[in-house]
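CO-FOLDING WORKSHEET

Operator: S.A.
Ligand of interest: zinc ion
Run index: 159
Mode: holo prediction, single chain
Checklist:
[x] sequence pasted
[x] SMILES validated
[ ] output reviewed
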Amino acid sequence: MRGAATLKDLDHYLRAIWLECCGHMSRFSIGGWKGAEIAKSENVEGVFKPGITLTHIYDFGTSSETLIRYVKAREGKPTTPHPIALMARNVQPQAICIECKRPAVWLCMECVIEDEMWGFLCQEHVKSHPHEEYGAPIRIVNSPRLGMCGYEGPADPPY
Ligand SMILES: [Zn+2]
Ligand SMILES: [Zn+2]
Ligand SMILES: [Zn+2]
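OUTPUT RECEIVED:
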């Protein structure tokens, strides 16, 4: 991130790549729920010092918590005109179909909510899955918010 960028920029980015479902509130703090809130208008260079870990909480009901760790600062020209440049991201965890154990691409929300299980389904078994109470199964995306609240992705970087 640029030093002059704000926590609001970071909040936007986290929502786009991982979190946004229904426009819930979010907050930054040091030390999780108990820690004092840090205003989103704060600059990155003012907040992040060596050893600092911020907690970002999205949605105060079905909350998603993201830890943001300062790794290192670099001086020089930004590599992008945007506030944030993505250097790496996680490899999407492999989901396995509950019927045949082959790679899954769909998730049944009725399985998640009513049966409290990860109802992952492949292209084939999604057709015969009996649940429809919570609408059609959703496409599996690379986000830790998958299966929470109304989250449906797309879990792509915003720029
Ligand atoms: Zn939501
Ligand atoms: Zn299957
Ligand atoms: Zn199901």
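REVIEW:
Strands lie at 26-29, 37-38, 53-58, 64-69, 106-108, 119-121, 138-139.
The mean pLDDT is 95.
[x] output reviewed
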